[in-house]
Amino acid sequence: MQYCSHTQVTKTFLSVLVFLFDLSAVVFAWVGGFLIRFNFDLGESFVVVMSWGLVFLLPGHALACRLAGLYRGIWMFASLPDLKRVLRAVGFSTVALMAFFAFYRHEQQVVPRSLLVLYPMLLTLYMGGGRAAYRMWKEHRL
């Protein structure tokens, strides 16, 4: 019988939290992009687009984060290599967004093209900002 040490359980818990944070980044960036695009007055017709986008982008972003190697370390140091991994994940996620643009068709409803700029920008700010804020909090605590 194999027992997990306290540090292993803590690292696993932190890994799950980091993963959930990164998935929340997709929701923040996608919904935030729509709200900014429509000046916080989102019409009902775009709620369907937004919902299908999340169904497509959440697993795409999860795969993008994995491919970018974001979970090699647990936010102990927000450094330039971490920023490169975040940018790589955002790039892969943006490719998933472009695939969504290409395949999504629902009653002549289109995805606003401005999301090709807003989504990666907000995603980078959320993911990078969260990591930088964690590092500042960790250093201040020490």
Taken in chain order, the helices and strands follow as: HHHH
Number of strands: 0
In round numbers, the mean pLDDT is 83
Radius of gyration: 17 Å
Helix count equals 4
**Percentage of β-strand residues:** under 5%
Q: Uncertain segments of ≥5 residues (pLDDT<50)? A: none
Biggest sheet details: none
Give the overall form.
elongated
What is the rounded distance between the termini?
37 Å
Helix content: over 70%
Classification by helices and strands: mainly alpha
Can you walk me through this structure?
There is one protein chain. This protein has 142 residues and is mainly alpha-helical. The protein has helices spanning 6-37, 44-68, 80-103, 115-141. It has 4 helices and no strands. Helix 2 (44-68) packs across helix 3.
Features:
single chain, 142 residues, mainly alpha, 4 helices, 76% helix, 0% strand, elongated
Give a short summary of the structure.
By secondary structure, this protein is mostly helical. It has helices at residues 6-37, 44-68, 80-103, 115-141.
Ordered list of secondary-structure elements with their pairings:
Blueprint: H1 6-37, H2 44-68, H3 80-103, H4 115-141
